[in-house]
């Protein structure tokens, strides 16, 4: 599989993209599936950490500016037509990137708001047949209609244009999402924050070289940790919490400088530790800051 990176100098470069042939638009780039996204970072002692993802974390929570340069250019030109904006090219470009980013967040949240609803209009839970092994674990035909299997409208649309991952937003429905804006943090800073958050668990105060690392390989609660990703006040806005008011059809966006990540240690070799990110923590004790 041929893969590509964005080359922005920011944390967006950590994401991997693959080429696919869009039914209507020809060769395009799409994000590699969450399960195939790996980040490799290294600490002061030469220890390498491989960061993997699960539960569609990448597509749900990791955001970048639009990859479509022409679309951003057209939006910036519209900004330039506003009073006082002529000749403000850099500012107009930033405003265009931000406006398109919010559009992307809105579309993502709109799709997640109905993620648990099948194209047949019935809930995911109505597809969990007791006679599909293991009982109540995997979706089957709908209990309420002739639908042969669970599929969201978003997933079917992606299938139609030949995207390799049918529905990267599948999971529980929600009207609120915590979004990490990768373009707002330089790659080096971002990697340092990720490394330090893992080091705080693997090499806590008192740890010395030659000792065993503090976190065992899972499964089990001892391998699961809450990692603090704090990008600092200067990067406030690297985290955006988006909330949809369903009744009004409106959205609110609140900026933060950091968030809490649920992660577990899943592998260990000499000089190489593997961690899996599985959840954006949003309970009261772990709210964005």
Itemize the secondary structure elements and their pairings.
Layout: E1 3-4, E2 17-22, E3 26-31, E4 38-42, E5 48-53, H1 57-61, E6 62-63, H2 69-80, H3 89-113, H4 153-160, E7 176-181, H5 187-202, E8 224-230, E9 239-245, E10 250-256, E11 258-269, E12 272-281
Helix pairs in contact: 2-3
Question: Notable features of this structure?
Answer:
single chain; 289 residues; alpha+beta; five-stranded mixed sheet; four-stranded mixed sheet; 5 helices; 23% helix; 26% strand
Concise synopsis of the structure shown:
With 289 residues, the protein is an alpha+beta fold. It is 23% helix and 26% strand.
**Low-pLDDT stretches:** none
Average pLDDT, to the nearest integer?
A: 91
**Biggest β-sheet strands, sense, barrel:** 5 strands, mixed
Q: Name the helix and strand elements from N-terminus to C-terminus, one letter apiece.
A: EEEEEHEHHHEHEEEEE
- Proportion in helices: 10-25%
Structural class: alpha+beta
For the biggest β-sheet, the strand order reads 4-5-12-11-8
What does the model show?
- The chain has helices at 57-61, 69-80, 89-113, 153-160, 187-202; strands at 3-4, 17-22, 26-31, 38-42, 48-53, 62-63, 176-181, 224-230, 239-245, 250-256, 258-269, 272-281.
- With 289 residues, it is α+β, with helices and mostly antiparallel strands.
- The chain has a five-stranded mixed sheet with strand order 4-5-12-11-8.
């Amino acid at each position: 599989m041929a893969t590509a990176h964005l080359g922005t100098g920011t944390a967006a470069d950590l994401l991997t993209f693959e080429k696919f042939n869009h039914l209507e638009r020809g060769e395009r780039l799409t994000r590699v599936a969450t399960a195939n996204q790996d980040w490799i970072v290294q600490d002061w002692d030469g220890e390498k950490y491989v960061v993997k993802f699960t539960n569609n974390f990448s597509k749900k929570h990791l955001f970048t500016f639009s990859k479509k340069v022409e679309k951003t250019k057209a939006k910036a030109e519209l900004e330039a037509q506003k009073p006082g904006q002529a000749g403000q090219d850099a500012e107009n470009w930033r405003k265009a990137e931000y406006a398109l980013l919010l559009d992307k967040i809105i579309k993502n949240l709109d799709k997640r708001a109905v993620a648990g609803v099948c194209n047949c209009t019935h809930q995911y839970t109505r597809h969990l047949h007791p006679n599909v092994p293991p009982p109540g674990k995997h979706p089957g035909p709908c209990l309420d209609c002739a639908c042969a299997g669970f599929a969201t409208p978003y997933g079917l649309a992606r299938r139609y244009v030949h995207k390799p991952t049918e529905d990267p937003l599948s999971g529980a429905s929600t009207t609120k999402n915590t979004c990490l804006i990768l373009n707002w943090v330089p790659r080096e800073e971002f990697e340092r924050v990720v490394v330090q958050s893992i080091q705080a668990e693997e090499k806590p105060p008192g740890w010395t070289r030659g000792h065993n690392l503090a976190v065992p390989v899972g499964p089990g609660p001892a391998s699961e940790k809450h990692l603090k990703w704090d990008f600092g006040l200067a990067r406030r806005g690297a985290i955006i919490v988006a909330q949809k008011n369903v009744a009004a059809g409106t959205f609110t966006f609140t900026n933060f400088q950091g968030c809490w990540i649920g992660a577990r240690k899943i592998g260990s070799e000499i000089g190489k530790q593997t961690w899996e990110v599985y959840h954006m923590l949003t309970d009261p004790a772990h709210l964005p800051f």
